[in-house]
Amino acid sequence: MRSIRTISLVTAAIVTGLMAGLFAGFAYAVMPGLKRSGDAAFIEVMQNINAAILNPLFMTLFMGGLAVGLAAVVTNWRTGDPAVRYWTLAAFACYVVMFAITAGANVPLNDQLAAAGDPATIADPAAVREKFEGPWVAWNIARALVNTAALGCFAAALLRAGRATR
């Protein structure tokens, strides 16, 4: 049973780390790079990214993070060290918050940007960009931070679990 607990924690940490890295990469590289672009180019690139990211690998990691996080909570619920349970539960809660931010803020903003249509035919691309960019960046930073917190909590759970097995 100990190996299942460890495998679930390691898997949850890896998936959470990959998602945190994606959102952080947008925060410190992609969005600052796009900030230097003209309005129509910004809209076109974000529309393309939003379409391209909806792929099987992203969806497996994004949705799978919920599954492996829950599996880590369940398999580590009755450990000898209650701190493992609490760190794992905190990590899963943070991942759920990231998921809610994505579903409740970033995805609707992405949908609004897609609905704006072809950037070459948008009457006022500056207005479309202004409505999208600031809120999307702010929510992305929030989800990057909370997902990084989830990773830190899974790491703490792994450390505690490792101590408990010595």
Number of separate strands? 0
Q: Tell me roughly what share of residues is in helical segments.
A: over 70%
Structural class: mainly alpha
What average pLDDT do the residues reach? 96
* Uncertain regions spanning at least 5 consecutive residues: none
Counted up, domains total 1
Assess the beta-strand content as a share of residues.
Answer: under 5%
Largest pleated sheet: none
Give the end-to-end Cα distance, rounded to a whole number of Å. 16 Å
Order of helices and strands: HHHHH
Q: What global shape is seen?
A: elongated
Number of helices: 5
Radius of gyration: 19 Å
List keywords for this structure.
166 residues; mainly alpha; single chain
Topology of helices and strands:
Blueprint lengths: L1 H34 L3 H14 L3 H20 L6 H34 L9 H40 L2
What does this structure look like?
The longest helix has 40 residues, at 125-164. The protein has 166 residues and is an all-alpha fold. Helix 3 runs antiparallel to helix 4 (82-115). The mean pLDDT is 96. Helices cover 86% and strands 0% of the residues. It has one domain. It is elongated. The protein has helices at residues 2-35, 39-52, 56-75, 82-115, 125-164. The protein has five helices and no strands.
What is the compact description of this entry?
The chain is mostly helical and 166 residues long. The chain has helices at residues 2-35, 39-52, 56-75, 82-115, 125-164. α1 (2-35) runs antiparallel to α3 (56-75) and α3 runs antiparallel to α4.
